[in-house]
Amino acid sequence: MDKLLEWDKELFLALNGLGKDFWDPFWLAVSGTVIWIPLYALLLFLLFRKLSLRNFLILLPLVVLNVFMTDQGSVMLFKEQFQRLRPCHVEELLQQMRLVKEGCGGQFGFISSHAANTFGLAVLVGNLLKPHHRYALILLLLWAVMVSFSRIYLGVHYPLDILAGGLYGALCGFIVLRIFQRIRR
């Protein structure tokens, strides 16, 4: 386990070290929420157009459930249990890494809520839109990868935080997708 955590730290430093001041505003925006509001609105619009009104109304609370599972689950089931410090809270790393913004969020980082949230949404919505928009799932997964990478770039998550968050989020998205498929008409 120690070897894995050491490898994770080394990979974090390598990826985080790729950053350049020029790109900082871009990755800060990618990591934010406000910039993605138009995407969320577009996804809701596409789902509204492709699903019956009844199925769309069934889906809305399930999307909320998915977000709750990924967001709160990442904190209650993982962060509070594992209590792995974010790299930006590890004194010995601060001189070796790039911390792009002031402050770095909560104390613990395993697993990444950003990764869980984006992968959960990508798997759920991407699979629902895939029959109508061939590349929807791939594009949404690429979006989730980009948001997730931003967290390493900014210096607030290790790669394993991202990987575990992405897997957990994808699992949540898949579970909610199956629930929707069982109750829709």
Explain this structure:
The protein has 185 residues and is mainly alpha-helical. It has a single domain, classed as Vanadium-containing Chloroperoxidase, domain 1, CATH 1.20.144. It has helices at 2-16, 24-31, 37-50, 53-82, 91-94, 113-129, 136-154, 159-183. The relative contact order is 0.18.
What are the defining features of this structure?
mainly alpha, 185 residues, elongated, Vanadium-containing Chloroperoxidase, domain 1
- Averaged pLDDT, please? 95
Order of helices and strands: HHHHHHHH
* SS class: mainly alpha
Please count the helical segments.
8
The fraction of residues in strands falls at under 5%
Main sheet?
A: none
Radius of gyration: 17 Å
CATH topology call: Vanadium-containing Chloroperoxidase, domain 1
Low-confidence stretches: none
What is the CATH-assigned architecture?
Up-down Bundle
- Report the CATH C-level class: Mainly Alpha
From the spread of the alpha carbons, the general shape counts as elongated
- Beta-strand segment tally: 0
Assign a percent range to the helix content: over 70%
The first-to-last residue Cα distance is 47 Å
The number of distinct structural domains comes to 1
